[in-house]
Amino acid sequence: MIKSTIHFMKIRNIAFAITVLITVIGLFSLFHKGLNLGLDFTGGTSIELRYEHPADLDKIRTELVASEAGKKSEFEDAIVQSFGSSESVLIRLKNDEPNIGNVVAAKLHSIDPNNKFELISAETVGAQVGKELLDKGGIACLLALAGILIYLAFRFQWKFGIGAIASLFHDLVVTLGIIAFFQIPIDLTVFAALLAMIGYSLNDTIIIYDRIRENFRVLRKADLIENIDKSVTQTLLRTIATSVSTAMALIALLIFGGPSLGGFALVMLIGVVVGTYSSIYIAGPVLVWLKLSREDLLPPANTELKDTNS
């Protein structure tokens, strides 16, 4: 346990300036470049192949994106990944032509004549279905944020709810800004990572908020800033242990998980870093700006009891 208190709130104004800068950059990147929506949201074709022997995904990907006679390949945006086993391959394309499965199969026959394959299926995902998924996903995020605000308002106090929502808003904007800047394809796994990131960041924030509330009862002579510094310091080792262990698992997924889990692991890794920062330098300062006091946490006075005693 850390014995001396670390004065996090001493640089809260500097941290706020950095937060504003990063958020503005994230919003600019988000609106300027836009999100690179994947097949799940834009529509296209999902092709499943089954090889006799383990397939070489790199060779398949290289063959698909290779240009022909100096022309740009129509399969340049192809996503190639294993599907259940090393012999099963899933290819996803932003192309919904009726015969696209046979075209892809014909293009891949020349890679390795000794490793034959068969075309199992070629399913088309309509753009309308993708739009519905995107709309429902956005509604799910909004409902999750609304539920969080209501929960924190009843569980703690409404000022805590405002701080948590500000922290989560920052996390989403910055993460989406990074995704837009690097044009990371957004599919259902990446979307799941965004929702998981909200839960991870909220968990960190609630732990700090719970300690702040408890310290109001213990540290009766401490002001709010001293309380926040003390609370963050007391939970720091737990935050570091959780963040580092989670990051290690995500890095392993990023390296060894392949393309199917790469997007999920990368977005979650960004969320761990951003969420840890916001739990300290957004969730805490918001309470200072809202002037949270010990009186805000006191239960309402029992007026009936007072009338009886009088």
TrEMBL record:
Pfam family, one: Sec_GG
Endoplasmic reticulum in keyword set: no
Protein's GO biological process: intracellular protein transmembrane transport; protein targeting; protein transport by the Sec complex
Domain Protein export membrane protein SecD/SecF C-terminal: residue ranges: 108-291
Cell location: Cell membrane
UniProt topology in membrane: Multi-pass membrane protein
GO molecular function: protein-transporting ATPase activity
Keywords: Cell membrane, Membrane, Protein transport, Translocation, Transmembrane, Transmembrane helix, Transport
GO cellular component term of the entry, any: plasma membrane
Bilayer-crossing regions: 12-31, 137-154, 161-182, 188-209, 236-258, 264-290
Keyword NAD attached: no
HAMAP family (UniProt xref): SecF_B
Biological role stated in the UniProt entry: Part of the Sec protein translocase complex. Interacts with the SecYEG preprotein conducting channel. SecDF uses the proton motive force (PMF) to complete protein translocation after the ATP-dependent function of SecA.
Entry protein name: Protein-export membrane protein SecF
Taxonomic classification: Bacteria, Pseudomonadati, Pseudomonadota, Gammaproteobacteria, Pseudomonadales
Gene assigned in the entry: secF
